[in-house]
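User: I'm preparing a small set of examples for a lab meeting where we compare how different chains pack in three dimensions. I only have the primary sequence for this one, and I'd like the structure in token form so I can line it up with the others. Please keep the answer compact; I'll paste it straight into my notes.
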Amino acid sequence: MRETASSMLLKAGTGVLTLAITFAIGGGDVVAQESLEDDVTYARDVAPILQQNCQVCHQPGSIAPISLMTYDDAHRYARRIRSKVAERSMPPWHIDRSVGIQDFKNDRGLTDAEIETIVQWVDNGSPFGDEADMPPPMEFPDPNDWQFAPDFGEPDMVFVSEAYDLDAVTQDKWYRPITETGITEERWVKAIEIRPVGLGSRRIIHHALAFLLQDEEQGERSAGSAEVTDRGAMGGPGLFMEWAVGKRGEIFPEGAGKLMMPGARILWEMHLHAIGEKVEAGQVELGVWLYPVGETPRNRTRLNMFDARGRSDLDIPPGEVAVTQDFHVLKWPARLENFQPHMHMRGKAMSMEAIYPDGRKRILSQVNNFQWQWHVNYIFADDAAPLLPAGTTLVITAWHDNTAENANNPDHTQWVGWGDRTVDEMAHAWVDVTYLTQEEYKSEVAKREGKTADPANDEDGPPAPANR
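Assistant: Understood. Below is the structure token output for the 468-residue chain.
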């Protein structure tokens, strides 16, 4: 399905979803929530915004290319900061604020008022203001430490991939070593974090996958039957975690987790790309926080790769915008924990919609300003994570902009298809799915609605209100 780049209204499917996307600056003009005074200053107005939303990455030794820890830093890069926040490419939070679920555990986006504050500060000459207005410096975790450690302590287990030496100039590499875990009994995992080891690894590793190689019986919810699509997507228990720039790890909801079996091994897939200088010992490590021995969560969470390629696969002509879509039926009641679009340089937008068994439709989440350098994992808040009955169809729709107007496009004259390289394209969403029993589903729905679950309710539960 294709339309020209001049089209401002992108249509997907046969009435399944209609979505307006403005390609100019990620979804439309910035509208201030209230008028600001002319004396916006760094000390009183801008420094708190940078502290809360920017400095965790923009500090020495972290992943950002510049530091924004001081006024001198912010003043030096003021025009660049203005441009990035006005077009909503920074901070990396590209969710569409106009539709879908808006409550997230990790919301790092700026409000319209915060954007207007920064814009006006820069336009007025970037004044410092009164030293007395400066907030105290914030303390951030060392970027080389485990980011989940403040909440969980040091990991119970750490697994490290074999190292790979990457030449200064070479084709992209996919390195797939195997690591023994030494697990001798079943252990349930409550949190996982993956990180490249050292600054060199952070510069060359585009993404990393960790698969669990372990023997399991083919049960009702094990590897064989947990697949929710006939495309053979990389979901199910085997996929332990996916990491890319912009993502730290996964914390599973209370009473849910992932299972490691005795004898489990980890198969890594590391996508590495050259940066013009040789980097030795590129590797990743995975920290695992476990439930206590003998404690078994009620539910098992699976990381699913929900395709949006369409039945004819990706086929993006030169100079055009392509729209593709796929459908995935949930076999059991489920809670979706997150939404993480994955595309490459032509990726522009992606949406996730639910079609309930009774025909009702609801857009769950939508990114309308996808930036391929950042693979943000949008983690739903506990009371906002969608609860879906068995038989719900998830509709994943992707938009790719292969025109000259796309500043990220390396060559708009090329015909583009699916492939692992960054110059190729992909179209899928990584979604953690926690499958529930029918009784658990009804109970969770009842909690949301503030009433007691009634086992006599119909099989699909009551109609879905706005927060489901």
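A couple of notes for your slides: Residues 1-24+308-468 form a domain with the Jelly Rolls fold (CATH 2.60.120.230). DSSP finds seven helices and 27 strands in the chain.

User: Perfect, thanks.
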